[in-house]
Amino acid sequence: MNKWTRRTFIGAGTVAGGGFLLGVAGFTFAPGRHTLVGEDASEKGQLTTWITVTPDNVITVLIPHCEMGQGTLTALAMMAAEEMEADWSMVRVLEAPALGEYANGYVVRAAGGDYIPAVMARGVDYGSFKAAQWFGFQVTGGSTAVRSTGEYGMRVAGAAAKEMLLSAAARQWGVPAADCAARASRIVHAASGRSAAFGELARTAATLPVPTSPALKEPDTFTIRRTSPPRLDIPPKVDGSAVYGIDFTTPGMLYAALEIAPVQGGRLTSVDAAPAEAMPGVRQVVGLEEAVAVVADSFWRARRALAALKPVFDDAGHGAVSTTSIFAAFDAALGPPPEMPAGAARVVTADYRVPFLAHATMEPMACTARVEGDGAEVWTGVQDPLNARSVAAKALGIKPEQVRVTNLLLGGGFGRRLPFNFDYVDLAVRIAKAVSPVPVKTIWTRENDIQHDYYRPAAMSRHAGALDAGGAPLAVKSHYTGGGNGEAVFMPYAITDTGAEEKEANHPIRPGQWRSVLNSQHGFFKESFIDEMAHAAGKDPYEFRRALLGNRPRFKAVLERVAAMANWGAPLPAGEGRGIALCESFGTIVGEVAHVAVSAEGGLRVRHVYAAVDCGDVVNPDSATAQVEGAIVFALSAAMLSEITIAGGRVVETNFRDYPMIHLAEAPRITAEFIRSDATLGGLGEPIVPPLAPAVTNAIFAATGVRVRNLPIRNQAAAVGLTPSPDTRSAPPPTGGSPAR
Amino acid sequence: MAITFTVNGQEQSLDVEPQMPLLWALREQLGLTGTKFGCGISACGACTVHLDGRPVRSCVLPVSAVDGKTVTTIEGLASHGVLHAVQEAWIAHQVPQCGYCQSGLIMAVVGLLAQNPAPSDDQIDAAITNICRCGTFARVRRAIHSLAQRGKATS
Predict the structure, then answer these.
(1) What totals of helices (H) and strands (E) does chain A contain, helices first?
(2) Closest-CA residue in chain A for B127?
(3) CB distance A361–B133 less than 8 Å?
(4) Of A382, A412, A443, at which residue does a domain stop?
(5) Whether the predicted pLDDT of A133 surpasses 80
(6) Which one of A12, A451, A485, A646 is at 20 to 30 Å from A237 when CA atoms are compared?
(7) Domains of chain B
(8) What pLDDT sits at residue A23?
(9) What is the pLDDT of residues B76-88, one digit of tens each?
């Protein structure tokens, strides 16, 4: 890998009208990308790198990450503005275009270079044959934006810009730069009372040498970070003006609806296009290898015509695959429970199962493409526009440079729109090629989305644990299927004899990264089992964990904080219980306590969830709190309700009626607190998810004595006399109308 | 046969199939993309608009059903450039995350508050059944209560 140095990666120049721009490139694999501001920058439209200052004092920060509601654009701009001593009210943000110059390779070297988030690992492997050739990331995933791009990019760029503006003022006034200070977008020279706005100094600053090692601020001097300015992406989201991938429109555009082989890997065998072609507005029926699409002058007409077709698909030999067959294979692969040390006073064993899960982003997949000659334009919402560009180019047999990708807002990501999950881009460009040069917007229905996802893998674990006569744990070991890694299976507890071993049990259901990735299943496995160990030892589950965290002060502090928040140990009425769980993922330690209530009739309700979070520090506390609140609801839908099942090789579920979500009525109260440990920044988008499911099932055990070992809880509920809150809450019927196909 | 209705104060006449859902007529024929497609079966509420002042889910409502009626979408909620109180509350409480479902949520909440300016938690639970995958419900509830408080203060 290339060695990262600030000198190589900082560039500066002027912009039209006498402004100033400065950029710090991400670490990239490609040697050619070191210079941010090339001689031909203006022709290529690459004038803006990361920070520009124009004479009107507006500071524009270009962000190489996508906004999907996590507040990234605002948080990263805050990190740059903090170092720059900017007036926050004059800061604007833009998402970087899909050009190699904005590859955000910082995510690969986050946390010192030895940590590669799981979502990126495949890409790194893929490029390993010649990693330095051309592979570029512009990915938003792995909970990395703030802790990588923010720490190693935005802060440095902001600090360098400040030093250059200071030098410009010092030169203009003939005073030492050290006597000047930056404050709220002005440089001031206190001794003489002179001051100048950043905008006035920008032209001169742009001509000065770029500092190679600008000094970064000490956290106790922060004035923008650790405050909660309103998120910059919110205003257009309340008046309908925000443009998501599915909203893009261009003159002459047609619409496509598609049906994909119901069994993954299946191929289109035959289709009679005539019934659709005879329908109004239909332009063309497009047969693809694995799908059939109808292109028409409106999406509704395309969808109606598609419904008139009877395409035949093969099943790729997977027609016998089912949820039952997959879990039977898991069970067989796991074999006997791990061996426990001789001399244990008590051995505990347990199996846990979690289902496949779909992402079900609120915005179904959508992608508009125009293919003309050797070029293509693509408008969509992806978590990595650079990789989407490569996918489109490969599908069309052209070079990435011949594809222009415009990334629009994402109506949810959660991992569905990560690199290697770009079937919706791949399909859309092939459909557009068939009707070239007409632009076509391909919209997935919710049924397409639920049935053709890259699923959170189903998984199973077989745990065994041993206790000594005093109830202290001697060993905890597991066999598991469905994927895992060191981070996901790691337990912080001081147990000398541990081990987690993956067992192979292949199936054809395609896997994806789902918010918190492997931690989503292993968090449930390991924190359920440690709870079972505690109860087997006759000990309080909180005290049992706490006693094993003597040499893990950060974990212990998180556990103690969340227990205090939840008033752990205070008596509860019959039928109520608290459950606790503690997980580390993406560099962040999270403890959660769920408080559940089971009514006499068996109704189950999660009343309150408490979360204590140590991600080092938070940039925007309110926005960070929103992430915690949202992730708890997201994780609760999965724990209580969500399950993708397979029958005949196909996904059974179709839409929100049979793949239900927690609604407002079932959403618990949520209390979140952050612990400022000043440890290296951790991620925040994902780490809140893993502890939620075990906290809830541990609470159900505390309330009822029933141990839920298989998710979702609603499946187990019937067996133990519980009825979780309504899972198919119907909307109030709107006036008239029957469901449109 | 043309279907004529008023959208956000403007009369519109569309020559489309009567069974085309209002959602697609708004998005594709009128370019009003603030109203979102989420499920197509009236399960998620992302497509909520007002028909003669009452919230409806436009993805299953045939456009023929609005002939001669008045439709308000998220784009028509602000008046002369001034945001509706619910939109203001959404910013004040920083409700949206990805934002995709929020047009529908806001329209549903405006509809609720028009009927019941100070709803209880149970009434909010019963009325607001939109799906939000980002899980913004805590802030939705908080924003609604803040509006109810404001309503009390000014009435």
Answers:
(1) 19, 28
(2) A732
(3) yes
(4) A443
(5) no
(6) A451
(7) 3-76 (3.10.20.30), 85-154 (1.10.150.120)
(8) 55
(9) 999 988 999 999 9
